[in-house]
Design goal:
The complex is a heterodimer of chains A (72) and B (140). Chain A is mostly helical and 72 residues long. Chain A has helices at 10-16, 22-29, 33-40, 48-58, 62-65; strands at 6-8, 66-68. In chain B, helix 1 (3-23) packs antiparallel against helix 3. Classes of the chains: A mainly alpha (72), B mainly alpha (140).
């Protein structure tokens, strides 16, 4: 499978929100800790629904969580 | 390691253990006139598999009750679907190829055909759970 060009700022956002753990984010979004880890590492691109739920948890827009192209 | 990956390991090990037990009988099964005990060996291996699987599941559920209650998320469902697709090809190629060899090369009868399909199914299940583990390790 070709590497994805979708990058994300989940790690920065987690730390900006009281050093939220992957487990806590996973519970709030409705996925496992391993899935959060895979998304954060760029190994898995989530569905739109999960992407929007993440943005909602962080209180930001989706394009502030996920970016297409070079990492920010 | 996620709970689903643990269950994939448990199932893979259970199938491999039971398959090894079954394969000890295969040379005898290739006899031109295998008796009814061939079917008994299949039934016994299926029963052994179910026992191992149930015991292992109970142990995992007791040890990780929270994880066991959590439903599969989208990545885990996708991994399962990808693994099933790989296993499907293994089963189709194994069953059709095995039946062709059995009918045209070995010349075995209906028990031999049943055995070939059974072996193709077991191989496909081994591949399915191995693929699940690989996908879990790779992240998706």
């Amino acid at each position: 499978m070709a590497p994805t060009l979708v990058t994300n700022s989940i790690r920065q956002l987690r730390f900006a929100h009281g050093e939220m753990t992957q487990q806590e984010l996973g519970e709030r979004v409705g996925v496992t800790r391993q899935t959060i880890n895979a998304i954060e590492a760029g190994k898995y691109s989530p569905s739109l629904e999960v992407a929007f739920r993440m943005a909602e948890v962080f209180g930001v827009r989706v394009d502030e969580v996920f970016h297409y192209g070079k990492p920010r | 390691m996620s709970f689903r990956e643990k269950t994939a390991w448990v199932t893979l090990l259970a199938i491999v253990i039971v398959s090894l037990m079954y394969w000890f009988h295969v040379p005898n099964m290739l006899h031109p006139h295998p008796g009814a005990w061939v079917l008994h060996a299949m039934a016994a291996s299926i029963a052994a598999y179910i026992v191992i699987e149930v015991v292992a599941w109970i142990v995992l559920r007791v040890k990780y009750p929270q994880d066991a209650r959590t439903p599969r998320d989208e990545r885990e469902r996708l991994i399962d679907l990808k693994a099933i697709r790989v296993a499907y090809y293994v089963f189709i190629v194994g069953a059709i190829g095995g039946m062709f060899v059995t009918l045209h090369v070995v010349g075995a009868h209906v028990v031999g055909l049943g055995m070939v399909i059974y072996i193709a199914f077991v191989l496909s299940q081994i591949v399915k759970h191995a693929a699940r583990i690989v996908y879990f390790r790779r992240g998706g």
